[in-house]
Structure prediction request, 118 residues.
Amino acid sequence: QVQLVESGGGLVQAGGSLRLSCAASKIIVSIYTMAWYRQVPGKQRELVALTTNLGNTMYADSVKGRFTISRDNAKNTVYLHMNSLKPEDTAVYLCNAERGGTNPRHYWGQGTQVTVSS
Prediction:
């Protein structure tokens, strides 16, 4: 059974930093597009950042220059480095793995809570 397990969330003051981790099992992250989304109750799930299997990255405008997505293929883990955090970054952050082609696959983690206090 494929698992994406997020960790690293918590409570931090505005201006602080956190590093989220997404450890994958039963899939090889290097061949997937890996992404971080965030969810606030009552709002649509938002794409925060993604990294493709070719190493291309994309960020939401709201986090550009503050967040960095990276992957460690040897550890089969994807990270989200979050700096200069703002109260509006408060959300549940979810890891996503997606693969297209003839055998598409799509997986979600259970999420980790990030709370930024002002």
About this structure: The chain has a mean pLDDT of 96. DSSP finds no helices and eleven strands in the chain.
